[in-house]
Amino acid sequence: MSVTIHDVARQVNLSIATVSRALNRPESVPEPTRQRVLEAVRLTGYRPDAIGRSLREGRSRSVGLIVSDIRNPFYASITKAVEDIAQARGYGVLICNADEKPERAQEALHFLASHQVSGIIHVPTGENVAVLGELEARGVPIVDLDRVSGLQNAGAVLVNNRQGARQAAEHLIGLGHQRIATIAGPQHLTTGRERLEGFRQALEEAGIRLLKRHVEFGDFREASGMRAAQRLFALPKPPTALFVANNEMMAGALGAVLESGRRIPHDISLVGFDDARWAQYMHPPLTVVAQPIDAIGTLAAEQLFERIEGKPAARIQVLDTQLIVRASTGPPGAS
Amino acid sequence: MSVTIHDVARQVNLSIATVSRALNRPESVPEPTRQRVLEAVRLTGYRPDAIGRSLREGRSRSVGLIVSDIRNPFYASITKAVEDIAQARGYGVLICNADEKPERAQEALHFLASHQVSGIIHVPTGENVAVLGELEARGVPIVDLDRVSGLQNAGAVLVNNRQGARQAAEHLIGLGHQRIATIAGPQHLTTGRERLEGFRQALEEAGIRLLKRHVEFGDFREASGMRAAQRLFALPKPPTALFVANNEMMAGALGAVLESGRRIPHDISLVGFDDARWAQYMHPPLTVVAQPIDAIGTLAAEQLFERIEGKPAARIQVLDTQLIVRASTGPPGAS
DNA sequence: TTGTAGGCGTTATCAC
DNA sequence: GTGATAACGCCTACAA
């Protein structure tokens, strides 16, 4: 069995109360006693049982992280940033992969609740405001990441999606494109909506109407991107430029491009949202709207811990995107 | 506050014992009683507190996952597979990113121990056999993944690294290369050692001596791959073919190739270990030794839960690799 | 069939 | 300065 505080107490002929105090409130115990305890701890290899402590304190020293797709490098990076910061503070990370399914996210939320996590970082997958609200009412800080859950008191770390989409659109327009299409994300997600809106708006301001048949929708997963691109390429007058609203759907769209024998950017100019290693390495390197991934994860984790440690102010932080022009975009019909 | 078993008991005028029984041992309670309880559970929204249960049972319904680099898509996929299976069984996953640092892995191990996890899936980062042994002695099943920790009773899911490296070497030899180099992984890791051994052996069998200056070592991270490749390219007679022992170091090596102005495969043939999306998309597409990623994660998780649920047999499962020939390899000096 | 009570490991309150 | 004790929520012998 494991060594408990009783073993340490026995070792030094003190009560468990004193041992606990020596460990948690060093000032409340005379230095010599404290040293004796510390020595005994070293000797026995005692480590406080996290479960016992959690039960007593009403919260576990761990945080929940719900991502929509752990295989998307964007969320893998986020996970790393969050885990880094949690580990530094002695917290654990319970990871849940919602796989873009709201039911799974809800299940995860319940699970985290019953585990008394100290806080939750959450990539919303759909409508789970009810469960979130309960958690929040119980005093569990919540930080939305990437998307917005609709929960009132949640903090959030987001990216300026409208700006990003606008950058993509303006770049394409500047190159002289007129038949510009987009593969948009799910419209029940803020990222899906905002990227489409920013894109449409930029086009309109340039006097270009975004045709209905030039807007295809996907679910932010690879397969849907491929299908959407295939539909676009099947049009009588296919677009000469395409803005794809996330990296996974872009991976799928690329498959369709290859399949159709089109050359990039001669036959089709491509702009993605969110950078990824493969985007830099592919041929030609992909023009993208990049997000400050590390900052997103770090800020979310930092805000979460600030609030866990007492600062009540939930903040909504919006970060800027950056257009990185590489070689997948060019004037229509030119190589 | 949260709703506890007491609230449910009050609701139906029963003792908490009966409620607990109705929930955990349906057969030990008359059906009508059970129904009343279930109804009350629904009404109150009661969910058992995982912490209380864990304390009582001496183990939490969660497993630990220690990976060496969560941003490496290989481990991100593993994480997904493990989380999938855990979630299906009602277990949570505590994720720890060791970042290839043994101290962090050890810290993580202690953390998981104090959290009374039911089992651990573990990508060894170095020598943590002592802590692992304690865990194991406490009855916590451990499954090594990808590498081998040296722990006696651990199960393991591995890949045939020697075979994989051999496939790479033979492919290069078959193409006619003579000056073949490798960027090997850390030699304190089984993957690092075995891939180098298999590679060397295949060369020797073909009558090619692997020169000392043609073996560079990295730490399985991108930056080290770049530096290693730079050293290789600075040789008076640089190699015409290069086998890189993992995908991250390959990413770095690619940077060095670009920087040096070499063309692939005309000036240098490249074979990687482990496939990645960018490997397929890059130009030219990368020849790789692929690992059955999903199977690795799934088998590890399945073995872990089998053992959690009582089957004592730790197994060592070794999976085959597969050479995928794409366009980054060709005869020396030919395009 | 159901209830009472003990205890898992911890921290904190209250005596001494 | 230190110790005894209660409490957190749960499950399960044992008693009724």
Identify the notable features of this structure and list them briefly:
homodimer, 335 residues, alpha/beta, 434 Repressor (Amino-terminal Domain), Rossmann fold, six-stranded parallel beta sheet, six-stranded mixed beta sheet, DNA-binding
Give a description of the structure:
Chains A, B: Keywords: DNA-binding, Transcription, Transcription regulation. Chains A, B: This is LacI family transcriptional regulator. Two copies of one chain form a homodimer. The first copy, chain A, is of the alpha/beta class. Chain A has three domains: 44 residues, 434 Repressor (Amino-terminal Domain), CATH 1.10.260.40; 127 residues, Rossmann fold, CATH 3.40.50; 131 residues, Rossmann fold (3-Layer(aba) Sandwich), CATH 3.40.50. A six-stranded parallel sheet of chain A has the order 2-1-3-4-5-11, with helices on both faces. A six-stranded mixed sheet of chain A has the order 7-6-8-9-10-12, sandwiched between helices. In chain A, helix 5 packs parallel to helix 13 and helix 8 packs parallel to helix 9. The model of chain A has no long low-confidence stretch (mean pLDDT 95). At the A-B interface, helix 4, helix 5, strand 2, helix 6 and helix 12 of A face helix 4, helix 5, strand 2, helix 6 and helix 12 of B. Chain B binds a DNA duplex (16 and 16 nucleotides) through helix 2 and helix 4.
